[in-house]
Design a protein that fits this description.
Rossmann fold; 2 domains; 13% strand
């Protein structure tokens, strides 16, 4: 099994790269998806979040209001640490279950937004960073995700710097351009990281 850590700043296009790697046969473990799963309605994770942050982080249907919770934690390091203490152990346990279900010879791509922030690089055989300049990422967050510019800047500032991410990379995929450019870059990466790929 080959363990690939995939990361990139918010708005870099990391999910697009993950989709393209999955299409080439990689088993993708999406940390954000797992994080949503462990705080779904009825889970111990959601109960713990509500105990810590209050019922105002719930939507009327009882699901977590991620946007509201995000506004609470991304501007306050202590609040973010409290949320991470609830979510990260649950994500780690669920991730282990998913990896255990993958074939022994699989290329497992871990889509981990906070790989650098949490010093997880040594956990992987290869670290791939999807990179785009901050102004490009900011424009994508405002245009594609509907964030207001101030909130998007807070989210970017809460993550590791671009320089720190690039320093952790074994491979960098430049995603500052069009998606068509991304296809050839992912194909080149696949050939590099997979023997006979």
């Amino acid at each position: 099994m080959r363990r690939v850590g995939l990361t990139g700043g918010i708005g870099s296009g990391k999910s697009e790269v993950a989709r393209r790697l999955a299409a080439r046969g990689a088993v993708v473990v999406d940390a954000d998806q797992v994080a949503r799963e462990v705080v779904a309605p009825g889970t111990p994770g959601l109960r713990a979040v509500v105990e810590r942050f209050g019922t105002e982080v719930l939507r009327p249907d009882g699901a977590l209001d991620r946007e509201r919770l995000g506004r609470l934690v991304f501007a306050d390091a202590d609040e973010l640490a409290a949320l991470n203490a609830i979510v990260h152990p649950r994500v780690a346990a669920r991730t282990q279950e998913l990896v255990a279900a993958a074939p022994d010879d699989a290329v497992v791509v871990y889509d981990v937004p906070l790989l650098v922030e949490n010093d997880l690089g040594p956990d992987f055989d290869v670290v791939v960073v999807v990179d785009a300049p901050e102004d490009v990422r900011l424009a994508r967050l405002v245009r594609d995700r509907g964030m207001d510019e101030a909130h998007a800047k807070e989210r970017i500032a809460a993550q590791a710097s671009r320089e720190r991410r690039l320093a952790a990379a074994d491979h960098v995929i430049d995603n500052s351009g069009a998606l068509t450019d991304l296809d050839s870059r992912v194909e080149a990466l696949w050939r590099e990281i997979v023997p006979g790929g």
